Amino acid sequence: MAKITLDNLAHSYLPNPGSEDDFALKELNHDWEDGAAYALLGSSGCGKSTLLNIISGLLQPSQGRILFNDRDVTHQATAERNIAQVFQFPVVYDTMTVRDNLAFPLRNRGNDEAYIAERVQEIGRMIDMEDMLDRKARGLTADAKQKISLGRGMVRKDVNALLFDEPLTVIDPHMKWELRTQLKKLHHEFGHTMIYVTHDQTEALTFADKVVVMYDGRVVQIGTPDELFERPEHTFVGYFIGSPGMNVIPAKVEGRTAYVEGSEVPLGAGYGPLEGKVELGVRPEFVRLSADEGLPVKVRRVEDVGRHKIIRAEFFGSDINIIAGEDDVVGADMNRVVFDPAHVNVYANDWRVQGAAA
């Protein structure tokens, strides 16, 4: 297990980067705790896999250092870092049995055969392949092969870190839930440092102690699921986390009041002068329809999703989403929305501004 330190780290795939825009991974300075489970979350091309490959040693960074427990491993080969990595598509030895695939990392390090047999049986049970251990990997389905890859990554107890690069892409939905549960159980039992790359917010939020949200090659927020939901530090975090994501609306802010298209919106805190692009961010859970107060909107449709209703509305060309209770009545005269002041975030140039309490 290891604390992982990213020291002045950045990477460009260009030989002579001339500006920040040339970097696929922009400068990072972070300490990731020993034994914690992290998820790297973001859309395709945001730099998640680049960062993971630098941590694993598959890629040398353009600048900066990687440290494991304060030991510089920047130029060490992958094998010397004592990590296990599971990739998006299954990597297995087709000519070997499932048992021998799982045993390979342990045999490669000279472990005792009795221990290997016990550990392989345990992992086989964990990935629900105990009755397939003596089958050849050739001919197995893609999701079965990926379970072998996952099992091979988890079979060693002494690794510094376990790295997962979108490992459940080819797994069926029910098995995804089971494997995420097993990964969390493994983490709680053995305390490995785990880093899990995904573009799926559900995977990230249900797996990780802390989620690292990336956007355009930059880490924009590291936090618990609650922190990402309640206080998105960047508008992308608000948009990407939640279903639907956070409403973002251009505004002018003066003190404890925001002005939106001539209407006043009360705020839960006071703000000084703000420069640049100023916006309000409020999650659909903290918006309600009204017949006589708030911002004027045009309700376009109501989607009943069982546990609640999602109301899609429009405000001067901007979309506004509202989450209402399953039993809430949506009247024809309800054409205004009200925001809960305590849950309105203010952003300047996409970054959250801390307000002053009264």
UniProtKB/TrEMBL annotation:
Keywords: ATP-binding, Cell membrane, Membrane, Nucleotide-binding, Transport
Presence of keyword ATP-binding: yes
Keyword Signal assigned: no
ABC transporter domain ranges (all copies): 4-241
Gene3D superfamilies (UniProt xref): 2.40.50.100, Nucleic acid-binding proteins, P-loop containing nucleotide triphosphate hydrolases
CDD domains documented for this protein: ABC_Carb_Solutes_like (cd03259)
Organism superkingdom: Bacteria
Pfam families documented for this protein: ABC_tran, OB_MalK
GO MF assignments: ABC-type ferric iron transporter activity; ATP binding; ATP hydrolysis activity
GO CC, alphabetical: ATP-binding cassette (ABC) transporter complex, substrate-binding subunit-containing
Family: Belongs to the ABC transporter superfamily.
Protein's name in the database: Carbohydrate ABC transporter ATP-binding protein, CUT1 family
Organism: Roseivivax lentus
